[in-house]
Specification:
The chain is an alpha/beta fold. It is built from 15 helices and nine strands. Helix content is about 40%, strand content about 10%. Helix 3 runs parallel beside helix 4, helix 4 crosses helix 6 (about 185-200) and helix 7 (about 230-245) runs parallel beside helix 8. Bound molecules: iron/sulfur cluster (SF4).
Amino acid sequence: MELLDKLTILADAAKYDVACTSCGVGRKAVKGQLGDTMNAGICHSFSADGRCVTLLKVLYTNVCSYDCAYCINRRSNDVPRTTFSPRELADLVMGFYRRNYIEGLFLSSAVLKSPDYTTERMCEALHLLRESYGFRGYIHAKAIPGTSDDLLVRLGVLADRVSLNIELPSEKSLQLLAPEKGKSSTLGPMAFVRDGIKANYQDKQLSTIKRTKFVPAGQSTQMIVGASPESDYHILKLSSSLYQTMELRRVFFSAYIPVNTDPLLPSTTETPLLREHRLYQADWLMRFYEFNVDEIIEEDEPFLDPLVDPKCNWALRHIDQFPAEVNKVPYEMLLRIPGIGVLGARRIVQARRHRSIRFEDFKRLRIPLKRAKYFITCNGMYAKGVIFDPSSIYHQLSTETKKRRAKGVLDGQLQLLDV
Ligand code: SF4
């Protein structure tokens, strides 16, 4: 098979992995307009320092010995199959890099023969890149659950970021939909990588390599949302616990895309993108806004409201803490006001040192008032036209969401995801 054919198959097969999502949409160019997108191949992602980087997103192989019910690459599917050789993959990356198409590589894989067999080949490709070609660009590698410790060390020294996909939010669902994987085959290696980052594990066989820090960009995971019955409460609790115990940089949520017909899978043709979007918003609140998971969602109401974002939802459930007077409330409370982000809160704190803030100042401070206006006062005054009444606020916010949904805005929205 020609290399280009392999690339076409393996880049397309990688598009379901959401740890970098910007290539999830296919849109053709239109005369008189600018730009188009491909749903596979090169994607844009955001690194931890906020830079936007382009990555070649590809599988090493889509030949899989596992049969996960939800996956296009499962062994029982009749799809074109192929595998790179380590040299082919390394040459491809270098060719793209030299042409300035990409700044790095996002490498995942199906399970060819066994996790170790596959990981060895992935490591060979990365070793060629790092050692023979001196490639110092960014590499995000997926580690396959069940990979042995020695190979994890090698992978972790060669890659910048490693991720182990937890895939489904409970052991029960894993047993049902991905019986060859188990929670322990993911959590064990995840704990190993966590410990390795702290101890900076090294592989003696790779001692000649110049860049030897173990997983310098940390590790992440991915969960499929909607292929199994677990609630948002369950998913967020699990995410929160993974952040704490496994010290993950990111938990990615992947809305279930129905690509297979299987009695074990939900009978839907829809992809729950809005649900995925709300989960990312909740995740954002936990990571940057000092919210505890129990403040965001409760067990007796285990799904996030699709019509109102989780921060607004929290504010409406704690309406006694509002309106917040922007000239007085502490930074921690500014962070909890819907529509005010971390930067906005900092700008307010800075600005109010000099003089009190009025509604007219928000534009200059580059803080949108669209949602914030319902929850704040400036010098004791409400924004023009605002009626401080929870049910009226809910109605206005949910109407806004419905309008945006009708235009397809939320479904197509991309989160700023670091890779
Ligand atoms: S291991 Fe499962 S999820 Fe991964 S490629 Fe194979 S069938 Fe798909």
